[in-house]
Amino acid sequence: MSSRSISLRVQLTALCSLLTVLAFVWTGVDSYQREHDTLIESTNAKLSTLAQMVAVNVISGVEFDSAEDVRGFLATVHATMDLQAAGVYLTTGHLFARSLRHG
Known about the structure:
- This protein is 69% helix and 11% strand.
- It has 103 residues and is mostly helical.
- The chain has one domain.
- The protein has a two-stranded antiparallel sheet with strand order 1-2.
- The mean pLDDT is 89.
């Protein structure tokens, strides 16, 4: 035997340690991916619900061509939901009313 041989106990300990570290890394990456996916799904659902709520509440303002009323509602939604901006577009693609964060 050479003087540089490593005992079986040390080899098995190193192997177990390496496998444990790999398991922790794998678990961490998987947890991060699940949290990321959940956050995206939650954000999309929240924005979809918000868009539906805005559509229901501004339809009369759009039908009666009252951009002032729609702007007022958007300002309320904008402030309440802490959004960067809120806007209503007509089916023609033109911006009807908007509310932007100042500053």
